[in-house]
Write a structure and sequence with these properties.
This protein is of the alpha/beta class. It has one domain: Nucleoside phosphorylase domain (Rossmann fold, 3-Layer(aba) Sandwich), CATH 3.40.50. The protein contains 8 helices and 15 strands. The longest helix has 17 residues.
């Protein structure tokens, strides 16, 4: 018979926020932004996810990530295990990286963040590889769940706040990097942000754009503070394959309309569940895609999620909090798998 300490014992039902990170390095970034990390819990054998538990702004939060392979099917499986094991989760996030789509209306740069938010034509996630094409039309098929209304309202309020103050990305990422020297990979890259014209392909065999012709870049005005990432909201396009062709990217946008970002997992989650998807921009969904910005982009997405969580209402007292309150009243409480909860006066022991 196993007995848990009243000072450390928590149940799966004490966790009300769930975060799925699309990569291990994204999970690492988020892990080191927690206020506190908790001991692990026993989970069902059928649940193959690996979890990191902790707290953030008074909320108990559970983190997990994909097991190496990515895509809509993997995303759906991971989300299902998370929700079945942690049944009290109310706020759910999918946090990762993606390829940004700059336009005249959306000045998206590397290191920025896109939050998948609905508009009049979609739920915030567009599954562009599930469609019907004929000679006259390009029609998307299937139903996807929009983000939860409560989280959407928080995002709108946060975006409004950012019109008068800086977002928290730089603050949170700097704190994380300073916490551990080994996290310097997550610092903002010093390489120049280049957005190439759609008809100019990457130099074959090169891992960076050092030998690409800079005269083929799209001219963009310098930002007044180029080291500060911005947060954008709008539709995110999702499919099972990586978008690495500027021509295909632009053709998809021509057919489906406004898109701010391309990624690979959100549609798999949104088919079954209501998540808020947050993508750090690590490339421009073209042949010039490389890994230089992916660590910082993952950290920026984690920081944005952390700022959203900071705006959530304080949670109801958890079982752990009730244990502490009862203890302060002179009661001793214990829990065993065999008998459940037991509350007795300390003097009776």
């Amino acid at each position: 018979m196993q007995t848990y300490s009243k000072s450390t014992f928590r149940l799966c039902d004490d966790y009300t926020i769930g975060v799925i990170c699309t990569t291990e390095f994204g999970l690492t970034a988020f892990r080191h932004m927690l206020d506190e990390e908790h001991p692990g819990l026993e989970i069902p054998d059928s649940d193959t996810n690996k979890y990191i538990l902790g707290s953030l702004y008074g909320h108990n939060i559970v983190l997990t990530c994909f097991p190496g392979n990515v895509g809509k099917c993997t995303a759906a499986i991971v989300a299902t295990h998370l929700i079945r094991t942690f049944t009290a989760i109310e706020s759910k996030f999918l946090v990762g990286t993606g390829g940004g789509v700059p336009s005249s209306k959306h000045d998206i740069r590397l290191g920025d963040v896109v939050i998948g938010m609905p508009d009049d034509n979609n739920c915030g996630i567009i599954q562009y590889d599930l469609r019907k094409c004929d000679d006259e039309s390009f029609q998307l098929k299937g139903f996807l769940h929009p983000p939860p209304t409560g989280l959407r309202n928080i995002v709108w309020g946060m975006i409004s706040d950012h019109r008068g103050r800086e977002n928290k990305i730089r603050e949170y990422v700097s704190e994380m990097v300073q916490k551990l020297g080994g996290l310097s990979l997550y610092s903002r890259p010093t390489q120049k942000d280049l957005f190439f014209k759609a008809d100019y392909s990457h130099v074959s065999g090169e891992t960076t754009c050092c030998n690409c012709d800079a005269t083929n870049t799209v001219h963009r005005e310098d930002r007044w503070s180029p080291d500060r990432s911005r947060i954008h909201e709008g539709p995110i396009a999702s499919a099972d394959s990586v978008m690495k062709s500027a021509r295909e990217r632009d053709e998809i946008i021509k057919n489906i309309g406004k898109v701010l970002c391309f990624e690979m997992e959100a549609a798999g989650v949104a088919t079954e569940y209501s998540f808020l998807t947050i993508c750090g921009i690590s490339n421009y969904a073209d042949s010039h895609k490389n890994d230089i910005w992916r660590y910082y982009a993952a950290a920026a997405a984690a920081a944005t999620t952390k700022e959203i969580i900071s705006n959530l209402q304080p949670p109801e007292p958890s079982k752990t909090t009730l244990i502490a309150l009862l203890s302060n009243l002179g009661l001793d409480i214990s829990y065993t798998k065999l008998t459940g909860w037991s509350v007795v006066p300390v003097s009776a022991k």
